[in-house]
Amino acid sequence: MLKSLTRIFLLTSLTAIPAMAQETSTTPSLSRQLAEKAAGFAKRAPADRRATFAKGIEDVRASGIEASAKQVGDDAVDGTLKGWKGDSVTLSELWSQGPVVVMWYRGGWCPYCNLQLRAMQQSLDKIENAGAKLVILTPELPEKAKETAEASGISIVALHDKDLALAKQYGIVFELPDAIAPMYQSRLPQYNGNDALELPLSATYVINSSGKITYAFLDADYKKRAEPSEVIQAVKAATQK
């Protein structure tokens, strides 16, 4: 079954390569797209709303989650998860064959997640040609993840991290700060199928064939994501270890 799953869509940092230098003539870097999205929000949103979200980010950062989560050099945590097609994927079976890129996204309701998903889709061939499998994980219910994929025009299947069980073992789950929790009280149960007001960091890991984490992108700011070009370089490095 694993052989049929050559493209898996489930559901920091190393020293950053300047993102703007990664752009092609046709496609802006992910960081530029994210910055433009954030600038648009800042331009149209009321000042108090901007301040509320900014406080939420700082509260998450102040919790120390970026330092307490799984880091480069740590053993990766294994897990078996399913996508909306019912296929089971066991991470260790994948990384025994070569590097694995593991990425969490928060939900299809998040415009920054959708930008990242499309960017990773566009980079999928390069990731695979570098020798890795891409695994995208999400707390979204499978039917919601399918809707997210269809709306974003992506072909890979997101795996359901039910109740964020695996994300919690990686240490990337946080309770929504009081400042922003009310904004999500009706949204998250609808998408995730539970009443927990929790989200994962938008974390990306590269795991080598020994089950070691060789790259980790961890940022409390949901507007920041791993640049695909950096992930590809991390994959290439992992294949040489």
UniProtKB/TrEMBL annotation:
<dbReference type="InterPro" id="IPR050924">
    <property type="entry name" value="Peroxiredoxin_BCP/PrxQ"/>
</dbReference>
<dbReference type="GO" id="GO:0034599">
    <property type="term" value="P:cellular response to oxidative stress"/>
</dbReference>
<keyword id="KW-0560">Oxidoreductase</keyword>
<feature type="domain" description="Thioredoxin">
    <location>
        <begin position="70"/>
        <end position="240"/>
    </location>
</feature>
<keyword id="KW-1015">Disulfide bond</keyword>
<keyword id="KW-0575">Peroxidase</keyword>
<dbReference type="InterPro" id="IPR036249">
    <property type="entry name" value="Thioredoxin-like_sf"/>
</dbReference>
<keyword id="KW-0676">Redox-active center</keyword>
<dbReference type="InterPro" id="IPR000866">
    <property type="entry name" value="AhpC/TSA"/>
</dbReference>
<comment type="similarity">
    <text>Belongs to the peroxiredoxin family. BCP/PrxQ subfamily.</text>
</comment>
<protein>
    <recommendedName>
        <fullName>thioredoxin-dependent peroxiredoxin</fullName>
        <ecNumber>1.11.1.24</ecNumber>
    </recommendedName>
</protein>
<keyword id="KW-0732">Signal</keyword>
<dbReference type="Pfam" id="PF00578">
    <property type="entry name" value="AhpC-TSA"/>
</dbReference>
<keyword id="KW-0049">Antioxidant</keyword>
<feature type="signal peptide">
    <location>
        <begin position="1"/>
        <end position="21"/>
    </location>
</feature>
<comment type="function">
    <text>Thiol-specific peroxidase that catalyzes the reduction of hydrogen peroxide and organic hydroperoxides to water and alcohols, respectively. Plays a role in cell protection against oxidative stress by detoxifying peroxides and as sensor of hydrogen peroxide-mediated signaling events.</text>
</comment>
<dbReference type="GO" id="GO:0008379">
    <property type="term" value="F:thioredoxin peroxidase activity"/>
</dbReference>
<dbReference type="GO" id="GO:0045454">
    <property type="term" value="P:cell redox homeostasis"/>
</dbReference>
<dbReference type="InterPro" id="IPR013766">
    <property type="entry name" value="Thioredoxin_domain"/>
</dbReference>
<dbReference type="GO" id="GO:0005737">
    <property type="term" value="C:cytoplasm"/>
</dbReference>
